[in-house]
Design a protein that fits this description.
11 helices, 2 domains, eight-stranded mixed β-sheet, 15 strands, Glutaredoxin, alpha+beta, single chain
């Protein structure tokens, strides 16, 4: 599930508001599925720069020390590879990390106050109870929401709470995200990034699940104007895939979306693509390269119309245009929902 978070994390710019003080840190820990000698990079999630390099020998991180002006939220990247493993806090003290390179996740953080409080959430994200079952995706989301709410209540006055809300907000509905924001202290609610998120989620809540669809216009593949209402509200289920050619996870998951479109076409599902923040030429080039068979809406306004801030994202519309599903979830979870609709499967 942690894959679902990458595009959302790239949009974050979280900063600590406390007075600057020197942070002296040390990182130790273990690495599963590492090569005999491996190198990891510590990535600053605000600046996307490399804060430190960790050498790994025989599955152990060689103790590494450093200093910063203030605590910093970070991810881990394997040197020379793409993809980040989220997330931990580079703060004063000895930080112990357990990392699984095969599954691209941080299994555990420990040793310092904020990292200790992050541990239960990271453990569940990496190892959901009973293993991940797409049919239980909404159940997992509720559990994650509870863990995040506990962290927010404990850290309402510091930057860990807004960071966690932004890190995981794609797992819940906009209304649930707004409820978490309301738990923050006034100082943290005044953070510029949280104010922007609140504005987007307020807009998104107007198109939350069980709400009617909102019109969206753009350009079709033939160069002519096209509207969302050309597809939605005409007696069929419509799955909108919000994506872009520059979004690695979007491109990686596109074959799954294409399979969904083909598998459920005869049962009345129409899949459409809605691209974000890129020229038509880039979108069309990716459509041709990836062999995407379903219609596209280019150069529309998904951010201001639906409050979409992270991709890939999906919205499933009912035959009458009502929004059935609008969390940013995996294609596997979308398929579980479609099976429930078309095959009468009862989800938990």
């Amino acid at each position: 599930m942690t894959r679902n978070m990458l595009a959302a994390m790239l949009l974050m710019t979280v900063a600590f508001t406390s007075q600057a003080q020197e942070v002296k840190w040390e990182i130790t820990g273990s690495v599963m599925n590492a090569e005999a000698t491996d190198t990891l990079q510590v990535i600053n999630l605000k600046t996307q720069s490399v804060e430190a390099t960790l050498d790994v020998k025989d599955g152990q991180i060689l103790p590494t020390e450093g200093a910063l002006a203030e605590p910093t939220f970070c991810a881990i990247r394997r040197e020379g590879r793409t993809g980040w493993m989220m997330a931990f806090v580079l703060e004063s003290g000895t930080i112990s990390l357990d990392i699984d390179l095969m599954n691209s996740c941080i299994l555990r953080t420990a040793g310092t106050p904020m990292n200790d409080d992050l541990a239960p959430l990271l453990h569940y994200l990496a190892n959901p109870t009973g293993g991940y079952d797409p049919a239980k995706d909404e159940e997992y989301a509720r559990h994650i929401l509870g863990l995040v709410r506990d962290i927010v209540l404990r850290h309402a006055d510091d930057a860990l709470a807004p960071f966690i809300i932004q890190m995981t907000q794609t797992r819940y509905t906009p209304t649930e995200t707004l409820a978490l924001i309301n738990l923050l202290s006034e100082q943290q609610r005044n953070d510029l990034d949280i104010q922007r998120l609140q504005e987007n989620m307020t807009l998104a809540a107007e198109t939350d699940e069980e709400m009617p669809y909102r019109e969206l216009t753009g350009i079709g593949r033939n160069g002519n104007p096209v509207r969302l209402s050309d597809f939605v509200g005409h007696g069929q289920y419509v799955l909108a895939d919000f994506w872009a050619s520059w979004c690695g996870p979007c491109v990686a998951r596109m074959p799954q979306v294409i399979n969904l479109a083909r598998r459920y076409a005869d049962q009345g599902l129409q899949v459409i693509g809605i691209t974000m923040k890129e020229p038509i030429e880039a979108s069309e080039g990716a459509v041709q390269r990836l062999g995407i068979p379903f219609p596209q809406i280019y150069q529309s306004t998904p951010m201001s119309t639906y409050g979409i801030t992270a991709i890939p994202a999906f919205i499933l519309f009912a035959p009458d245009g009502t929004i059935l599903l609008r969390r940013t979830i995996s294609p596997e979870a979308v398929e579980a929902k479609l099976k429930a609709l078309f095959e009468g499967v009862n989800l938990p």
